[in-house]
């Protein structure tokens, strides 16, 4: 495994109860960070925390709903973080013509406004403590190109990419770096069955590397942005997608 030393750093990972967030928390803990795993489902977070503690990592659990400003404030009232992985996200799959106000609002409030809420609350704490830090906002290749039936999600993720640039510009003077991580299709428990289907296999054929990403494919990009290895990187995005964005027109 790539070795980056995050000893002495405190990291927050939102949406750490499953998928990418759970993996990101483990990777940061293996690199020495003390990690707070946060999401709405505390029981599922306990599983993440047990896995990290079982590997000798230092981990706390925090209940967090990124759509609730009071919940976000409470997490940062209790602790300051050097590294924030803004990973919590939801999607809505359906044609734009059939997307309701509620569908749209749920995705934008979680994936775009929620990312801002967490970044702002975290940065305020970093500024107060004069400690600087790194904020990694998890966007998607759908923030850079589009696909059908994900209008709200693609719009939110494009907003996350641009937000990361805007916040990087304002917060560089406080030694806070803000970057976006844009994964392509990564295999997780939630999508494994779909990618085994005919439609899923057809999708994988459009990826130049002809494969799905594995969670471990994101370790290098994550640690680069989170650690001092990326000290001169801010306001940018890293794409990890097996070449999907450059698929042939
Ligand atoms: P997932 O559904 O397994 O994980 C999402 C996490 O966010 C869960 O822990 C969930 O509880 C949490 N969450 C949702 N709403 C929340 C809220 N209001 N407050 C706090 N936590 C909340 O999905 P996955 O695939 O692990 O996605 C994680 C991130 O990675 C998302 O931002 C997603 O858009 C992004 N992503 C995923 C890709 C993939 O192929 N799996 C590709 C590109 C981006």
Automatic annotation (TrEMBL):
Q: Which Pfam families match?
A: adh_short_C2
Q: Which GO terms describe its biological process?
A: fatty acid elongation
Similarity comment: Belongs to the short-chain dehydrogenases/reductases (SDR) family.
Query: Which organism does this sequence originate in?
Result: Thioclava atlantica
Task: Please spell out the taxonomic lineage of the organism that makes this protein.
Answer: Bacteria, Pseudomonadati, Pseudomonadota, Alphaproteobacteria, Rhodobacterales
Its transmembrane ranges are none
What is the protein's name according to its record?
A: Putative 3-oxoacyl-(Acyl-carrier-protein) reductase
Query: What GO molecular function annotations does the UniProt record carry, in alphabetical order?
Result: oxidoreductase activity, acting on the CH-OH group of donors, NAD or NADP as acceptor
């Amino acid at each position: 495994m790539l070795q980056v030393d995050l000893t002495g750093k405190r990291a927050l990972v939102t949406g750490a109860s499953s998928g990418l967030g759970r993996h990101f928390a483990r990777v940061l803990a293996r690199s020495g960070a003390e990690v707070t795993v946060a999401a709405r489902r505390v029981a599922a977070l306990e599983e993440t925390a047990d896995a990290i503690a079982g590997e000798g990592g230092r981990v706390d659990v925090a209940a967090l709903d990124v759509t609730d400003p009071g919940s976000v404030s409470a997490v940062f009232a209790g602790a300051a973080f050097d590294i924030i992985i803004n990973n919590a996200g939801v999607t809505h799959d359906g044609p734009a013509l059939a997307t309701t106000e509620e569908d749209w609002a749920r995705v934008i409030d979680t994936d775009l406004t929620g990312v801002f809420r967490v970044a702002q609350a975290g940065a305020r704490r970093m500024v107060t403590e004069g400690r600087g830090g790194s904020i990694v906002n998890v966007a998607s290749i759908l923030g850079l190109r589009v696909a059908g039936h994900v209008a709200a999600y693609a719009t939110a993720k494009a907003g996350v990419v641009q937000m990361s640039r805007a916040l990087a510009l304002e917060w560089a003077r406080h030694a806070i770096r803000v970057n976006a991580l844009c994964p392509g299709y990564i295999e997780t428990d939630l999508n494994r069955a779909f990618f085994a289907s005919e439609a899923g296999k057809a999708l994988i054929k459009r990826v130049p590397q002809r494969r799905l990403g594995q969670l471990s494919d994101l370790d290098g990009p994550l640690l680069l942005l989170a650690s001092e290895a990326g000290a001169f990187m801010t306001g940018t995005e890293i794409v990890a997608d097996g070449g999907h964005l450059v698929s042939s027109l």
